[in-house]
Each structure stands twice: as C-alpha cells, then as structure tokens.
Design brief:
- Helix content is 34%, strand content 21%.
- It has 219 residues and is α+β, with helices and mostly antiparallel strands.
- The longest helix has 36 residues.
- The chain binds copper (II) ion.
- Copper (II) ion binds next to loops.
- Copper (II) ion (CU) binds next to loops.
Length: 219
C-alpha cells in the first residue's frame, strides 16, 4: 500500500465531511444574498413599480424623506417677500436682511419696503451705486411715521449739511442711516417690533429735501 492510499483511507471521510459542510454553508449564504431577487412574487414587484411611478414633473421621494421634509417645512418660518422693487422683483428676507440701493439721481431701488414681523431685527444694507460725492448727491435712509415725514424734513433743512440733514436726537426718527455718496455703503438696523401696527411708516431721504420724491411706504 502506497503512502497516498494510506492517507486517503485515513482522512477521506473527514475531508468529504468538511467539504460537504462548506457546501451547505455556501448554499445558505447564496440563498440569503439572493432571497430578495429570486424569491419575491410578481405582485410584490408590481406594487413596487407602481409605487415609483409618478406623474411627470414630480420627483420621487421615499416615504422617509417625505416625512423628514414635511417636518423641516413645518419648522422653517414662511419666507415672506420683503422688498417690492420698482422692477416688480421681490427680494426674500429669509435671513432678515435686505438691500436698498440709490445712485446719482433722486431715487431708491425700491418703491416699497415690507418688514417681516417674525424678524427681531432687519438689517438693511444701503448702497450708493453712483459716482457723485456725498456733498453733491448724498442720500440717507430714514424710517419714521408717515405723518412725521414733513416735520422731520423741515427740521432737517434747518440742521442743513452741517447738521447731517437731521435734527439732533430727533425722537420722531425710528431709524436713520448716515449719509452716503457714490461708491459708499452703510447698514441700518430696523426692529419691526418698534413699529406700531396701527401707524403708517415711510422710508425717505432727508438730504436737501429729497424726501419730496425719495420716499416710500413701509408695510
Ligand atoms: Cu437723497
């Protein structure tokens, strides 16, 4: 009897047993991996496909994502348009800030400002896009009751350029920016809570009686 035959006599059963067990493991593993692919019924497939079919233009979202986005939509405050520009464009004040520009003419870039009540503070960036200096074509942005506009302007005219076109410590002024010239920019903070809902407010420029034409309502 050769060495080889002795080996097989001794270990053949053990080797075949190991191979058989390994083969069973392999089958079980393959079954696990392919269960969802080969064992699902045609009805299951059909239901899945119908679930994914949506009218054109709608994006498919899984139920989980839908729930998450619904929660998100509930948490986020409504984004109200804050500025109605003369071009009829609306600027969304989603971060409680907005921009108003002016230039070498007697006009603001917006005809109306609307302040969202859900903002504690609204930061207005006021920019002069022209090239004339402040002494020639300066503008400011003043917020006050519409009824106080003319009295404020009258006192501003008395203060004149030396007084910065506003009476010192004018209590009627809700907020006022500094005067800017071409290429300059400044910021004005408005607190919507400081405006009474029963009053009408306006924004205007007090430089050299510009408020005659540089004015608009706040809503
Ligand atoms: Cu002005």
């Amino acid at each position: 009897m050769s060495q080889e035959q002795k080996f097989w006599d001794k270990y053949s059963i053990t080797i075949f047993t190991i191979l058989f067990v390994a083969f069973i493991f392999y089958l079980v593993k393959i079954y696990d991996l392919t269960e969802g692919v080969y064992v699902r019924s045609a009805e299951d497939y059909q239901a899945d496909i119908i679930e994914r079919i949506r009218p054109v233009g709608q994006v498919y979202r899984s139920e989980q994502e839908k729930e998450a986005s619904m929660m998100l939509e509930e948490e986020l405050p409504m984004q109200e348009p804050i500025v109605t520009a003369m071009s009829n464009e609306t600027v969304s004040a989603n971060d409680c800030s907005l921009e108003v520009t002016t230039g070498d003419n007697l006009a603001y870039s917006v005809s109306e400002i609307s302040l969202p009540s859900n903002c504690e503070e609204v930061a207005v960036t006021f920019k002069h896009l022209g090239s004339l200096p402040a002494a020639v074509m300066g503008h400011n942005l003043v917020i006050a009751k519409t009824a106080d506009l003319q009295p404020i302007q009258d006192d501003a005219n008395k203060a004149g350029m030396a007084g910065g076109w506003l009476m010192a410590d004018d209590a009627r002024v809700v907020a006022a920016s500094k005067i800017i010239g071409g290429g300059e920019s400044t910021e004005l903070i408005i607190k919507p809570s400081s405006l009474s809902s029963s009053e009408q407010y306006s924004f205007f420029c007090t430089v050299m009686s510009h408020s005659a034409v540089m004015r608009g309502p706040i809503s």
